[in-house]
C-alpha cells in the first residue's frame, strides 16, 4: 500500500487527484488542501478549494466549470441581491450554499475545520483523506495599486474573481499563516508518506500557501521520500487560470523551469514538464531536480491518469538514486 | 389620518392586514408581530410570522399555501438532507432561506431584530410599519405527554409543524417572555393609536404571546381607545390551523364566545363573530364586550376588506358610547 500525500489547490489539484486515483487505485491518498482562499460570505465560511476537491472526487462537481455543483440553481443569490446584500461577484449556488451552511453551523458549534471537513466527506466519499492545511484562519491577500499611487490589500477571491487578476499583483500575503499550525494529521501524513506530489496547482496561491504554514515545508523536506511536482505552466503560460499574474508578484517567471526553481531542489526531487517544454528538462536538472517531459494536459481522466503514472514513475526513479 | 395598531400572527393576521389596507388606505398601520414561534434552524434565525406578514403585504407570498415564497425551490433543503442535517420537517425554501441569511448576518453584526425587520421591509415595502413584539428572544414551547407518562416541552414549531398538533397540548409557555421588553416603538405606537385590532390570529400562540410581553397588555388596556377583535373560531372550529388544540391547553373552549371571554372585557371593547355564530352575540355582550355578527371568511381580499370595515365600524360604535 503506497501512502501518497498531495498538496492541492482547487480545480487543477482536484482533476489531478481524479487521475491519480485511477492510476493508483490501491494507494492511500491524503490530500492537504489549501484554505488560503477561504472567504466569509453572508456570515458563512466558504472553502472553495476543499469543496472543489470534495465535489470533484465525490461526483458532485459542475464538470465544465470545474468548480461549484452540477445542476446548480441560484435562487438564494438572486434573493440576496434583491435585498441589496453583496458581494454579487461570487457565484454561490443553492446546492453549494448548503455545504457552507453545514460547515458554518459545525464551526459555530466548536468543531475545528478538519473535523467539519471529515464530516462533509462522509457524504461525498471522495476516496482520499481530505485535510485542510490548518484549522487556523489564514486568508491570502493580494497587494494591488490603488488610485492614489499607493497600495491596498484585497482578499484573494476579490483579486481573482471580481478583478479577474486584471491588475498587477504586487505581493501575495497569506495573512495569519505565520501563527498557524498544521491541522491534526497533516504532519503525521507527511511523515508516514511514501511520496509527496505537487499537482499542477498554482505554485503561489495554492501549493505556496500550504507550504507557508510553519512546519509543512520542513516536514516535506525532512521526510526523506520522493517529492515530485507537475508543472502548471505549459509553453510559458498557465494551463488554466491566471497563475502568471501571481508568479510575477513573487518574482518568478511564468516558465516550467522557473516554477521548479521556485520550489527548489531542497524541496523538490522530481519535476514533470510538458512535451512542448522538453527544452526545459536540462535547465531543471541543472538545478538539481530530476525532470521528465510528458504530455501534461488534463484533457480527460485517462490522460490525467497517465500524468499521474509518469509522476509515480519519476518518484521511483528518484528513490532508486 | 387614523393610526391603527394590529397584533398579528402569521397567515391569518397577514391576510387580514391585506384587507385592512384596502378598507383603510389612508390609515397609518403599525403591526406588532408575534416572534414567539421564531426558531433557530441551521444556525439561522427564522421569524415565520414576521416574514409571512412581510411577504404577504409585499407581494412575495405563496398565495395558496399562505406562508413561504411564491415560485419557491428547495435545493438548499435537499442538500441539507443529503448531509443528514436536520430538521427535515421545516419547509425552508431557497428564496426564504436568503431572508434568514440576511437577518442572521445583521443580528450577528449587532443589530436588534427591530432594526433588521425594518431593513428587510425596505425591500418588501409592506405598506405598514412592522415591529417585532420584542427584540428579546422569546420562544413558545408546548408541553406534551412523553412516553413515560411524564411531560416534555417541545418548540412550538415542532408541535405545530412536525407533530401537526396531533397530541394534546398540556400547556403553552412563551419561554423568556417574563424578562422580555417590548421592541422600540411598540408601546409608543399603542399609546398613539386611535384603535387597536386583534385579527383572527391564534388567540393563544399568536396574539396571546404578544400580550405576554410585559407592558403590552397594560398599554393596550390603558390606551383609552377602542380595542376590537375578530373571532378566529367559526362554528366551534378554527377557520384555519389548529387553534382549538392550544386553546384547550389554556382551558378555553373553541367557541367564538369563549375566545372573547379569554381576552376579557378589561382588554377587548368589541368582538366580531361570524354570522353562523350570531347566537353568540348575546353571550359576548353579556360579558361586557360589544359584539356583531358578520361574515368572517377571508375568501378573497374584498371579503377581507369587508371584515376590516366591520371592525372599523364597530370601533366607531364603541367609541361613541
UniProtKB/TrEMBL annotation, chains A, B:
Catalysis performed (reactions): enolpyruvoyl-2-diphospho-5'-guanosine + 7,8-didemethyl-8-hydroxy-5-deazariboflavin = dehydro coenzyme F420-0 + GMP + H(+)
Superkingdom of origin: Bacteria
Annotated InterPro entries: CofD (IPR002882), CofD-like_dom_sf (IPR038136), FbiA/CofD (IPR010115)
Pathway(s) per entry: Cofactor biosynthesis; coenzyme F420 biosynthesis
EC number: 2.7.8.28
Alphabetical UniProt keywords: Magnesium, Transferase
Pfam family, one: CofD
Residues binding 7,8-didemethyl-8-hydroxy-5-deazariboflavin: 51
MF (Gene Ontology): LPPG:FO 2-phospho-L-lactate transferase activity
UniProt cofactor(s): Mg(2+)
Segments traversing the membrane: none
Function noted in UniProt: Catalyzes the transfer of the phosphoenolpyruvate moiety from enoylpyruvoyl-2-diphospho-5'-guanosine (EPPG) to 7,8-didemethyl-8-hydroxy-5-deazariboflavin (FO) with the formation of dehydro coenzyme F420-0 and GMP.
Family stated for the protein in its record: Belongs to the CofD family.
PANTHER family: 2-PHOSPHO-L-LACTATE TRANSFERASE
Subunit structure: Homodimer.
Protein name (record): Phosphoenolpyruvate transferase
